[in-house]
Amino acid sequence: MDLDTVRTFVAAADAGQFQEAAAELAVTQQAVSKRIAALERHVGVRLFTRTPRGAELTIDGQAFLPHARELLRVAERAVASVRTGHRPLRVDMLTSRSAASGLMRGFHRAHPEIDLDVVMLFDIEKAVAAIRSGAIDASFRAVAMPGRPLPEDIASVRVLDEPLQLLVGPAHALASARSVTVAQLAGHRIWMPGLVPGTEWTAYYDDLVAEFGLTIEATGPNFGSDALLDTIADTPTLATFMGGQTRLVWPAGHGLRRIPVTDPMPVYPHSLLWHRDNPHPALATLRAHLAATAAGHGAAGTWVPDWAIPR
Amino acid sequence: MDLDTVRTFVAAADAGQFQEAAAELAVTQQAVSKRIAALERHVGVRLFTRTPRGAELTIDGQAFLPHARELLRVAERAVASVRTGHRPLRVDMLTSRSAASGLMRGFHRAHPEIDLDVVMLFDIEKAVAAIRSGAIDASFRAVAMPGRPLPEDIASVRVLDEPLQLLVGPAHALASARSVTVAQLAGHRIWMPGLVPGTEWTAYYDDLVAEFGLTIEATGPNFGSDALLDTIADTPTLATFMGGQTRLVWPAGHGLRRIPVTDPMPVYPHSLLWHRDNPHPALATLRAHLAATAAGHGAAGTWVPDWAIPR
DNA sequence: TATGGATACAACCATTGGTTGTGATCGGGC
DNA sequence: GCCCGATCACAACCAATGGTTGTATCCATA
């Protein structure tokens, strides 16, 4: 199906005749007739009843019309999403399961008129480069990697500390614990597939391991969260970490348990990063929104790596 | 833009390489390469970075991807809307401003999983013919026209009485009335553009006029409700009728008043019509929903034309 | 009955979009 | 260090698509 054809259909439906639609589209009446005929062949039903006084929609045509309009709307938004200049606000985040996703959903609820696009870059290096090039407008990240300070032209503000929670299956030794201390985790196998060396996400866990003597296995390919959850549910000796803000589509019948970690409570510090010179108006709106709805961060009893604390 | 091209883009993005996408789509790798290049030319940005080991999305490509998927989803629904067989439930109603529209919105909220299409046919004759032919599944109408009983194979149930309200501008003599009786309306000019002879909607007003001695002017072309509202607001001697359930997008600053009509209260009786043999599962759901949420009808003190009361 | 305005069909042709064949580039294995 | 295999891009060719012009048909209206 060709969108020019759909556009022609909508124009003809609005005009009530092919000829006027043809004039609007700057083609001949015969071309419109052919396009409509092709569309009818494609969907398999007659969309117009032709009369010597014009063409009016059949019932099928009437039913199809709103869908056709929607199709054109979506197509326009699709093109707008990559148009340089006045394009939707483009935000990068770690994963769709991170707390940043929740923040952006809240922002979208508060400002449904602002068009958003979400991308996921590899690490903070790529994110910073993309922000500087203007390819993205903002990024939710831990502010920096060990020994790599943020460049001067990138601004950042800490927006949310996301507590880590332990995820275990029903047969796990800690399954019935109401909370666990970090010290209690020593000796347990914690599995985090998909941790890629060189990312700040991995640097975070490296620090956690180094400071508290945990064992985290990053082995094995990442087959997605569904597969991870399946394995965790079925393996009594395996646990994993998960962001505490995550609203999972909870698989039924798994018996998975989420257990808060305390003493200290490891939190992943999400900051918003943006370019100081970025003039996108929606960026200012986003910053204002985050400032207004900011949850507590830097609270006592929480732990973050040294390098992730902006000074 | 061509949807086959969009499909190709999504396939290539999923596969991570053109070759595999080409195999899926049963074309050559060169064809995929050309299509992607054409799409990139169309939107004006590079969507993939080509490597000797495949092709991965650029940031623009990442932003475009969900829009592309949405585009394909919408296209599929568009085609499904006219597919004979298992198509969305297709319902006919008088106008988008009638109470039937509100009922269908309620149904959609209660059953968002059921796909709906709304069409508007000319009159009940056309609606009955469409129901018998299977072109539509149900219709919200006054059950019959004077002297034209419903055919045996069409079932109907009264679902809502919609009270008529008087709509006047701020300078109208009745502007400050809290309610008016039908008798008080005699002598006032009531304007109803767009009343087409031969429809049951017009038959309703004919009966109202005949029984209570009102003057209703149906003259002039119907330029849509906006124009009607403008005229009513500006003309001190003109009023119009409007369904009491209507949730208008109320034009600001018009000072329009809605006044209930009493003694008796004229109501427009909406019934649901359907074919007894129609097996569409969503039709049963709709009937059950309407039965469960049915508002009162046939209440004392209301008026409907004789012929509109099913016996 | 002639006319004007509408769509459909036919013939023609430029352009599009597919295939095949080939070249360039990079990573991995030997 | 070199070659092989896998990838994508480019060129040439060709069929099919989709546009235009010209014409036929239909019907409401004067």
Describe the structure.
The structure is a homodimer of 311-residue chains. In chain A, 39% of the residues lie in helices and 22% in strands. Chain A is of the alpha/beta class and 311 residues long. The mean pLDDT of chain A is 85. In chain A, the strands form two sheets. In chain A, strands 3, 4, 5, 6, 7, 8, 9, 10, 11, 12 and 13 form an eleven-stranded mixed sheet that branches. A two-stranded antiparallel ribbon of chain A has the order 1-2. Chain A folds into three domains: 78 residues, Orthogonal Bundle (Arc Repressor Mutant, subunit A), CATH 1.10.10; 113 residues, Periplasmic binding protein-like II (D-Maltodextrin-Binding Protein, domain 2, 3-Layer(aba) Sandwich), CATH 3.40.190; 106 residues, D-Maltodextrin-Binding Protein, domain 2. In chain A, a hairpin with a 2-residue loop joins strand 1 and strand 2. Chain A is built from ten helices and 13 strands. In chain A, helix 1 crosses helix 4 and helix 2 crosses helix 3. At the A-B interface, helix 4 and strand 4 of A face helix 4 and strand 4 of B. The first copy, chain A, binds a DNA duplex (30 and 30 nucleotides) through helix 3.
